[in-house]
Amino acid sequence: MKILILGAYGQIARLVRERLLKETDAELTLYLRRADRLQDVEPARETVVAGDVNDYASLKAAMAGQDLVLADLGGKFEPLAQNIVRAMTATGVNRLIYITGLGLYHELPAKFDAWLERSIGHEVMEDTRRAAKLIETSPIDYTLIRAGYMTNNDEVDYELTEKGEQFKGTTISRLSIADLIVKIMKDPTLHSRSSLGIAKAGTDGDSPVYL
After folding, report:
1. CA distance 101 to 184
2. Which of 12, 114, 159, 174 has minimal Cβ neighbours within 10 Å of its Cβ?
């Protein structure tokens, strides 16, 4: 399998990369704005591309021939999602895993949903929602991963909620998110065209939100 990782210096992306090199024979294309930030590249299996997802021509060139795309990105999300969908459609790449945040569908308990809008900002949340909608209404086979407050705790412990279900909990380790991503990469039929909430197992919707 050939996998393109967008935002390859992201914390989750680096965890995924480490596991893929250890556990699979996948060939990785590592796409990021500053290629010099990546160390210990394995030349037999990894190709590093210095590029910006906002640069459509560069993104499309990196997309060609890939089997699956992971997006671990920050910034203004709507134009990034537009370019990803456009480039995947143009190159015939069909499988996308896209990391985003909680609150896309007002799926938190009402008091936390209102807090989130005030804390992060309505326009930022709307930008994130527009990006997600672009992906969900495209012909691409996607998995959106809606994560709460991310920790660096040394644990893999999570449960998932589907779109339409109330989000459980508000915290999740990056190792847990990486574990879910690697599972999907090993079997891309998992969670096809799904939007998954991910939170630490055993927590509930009354947990405090720390963002």
Report:
1. 18
2. 114
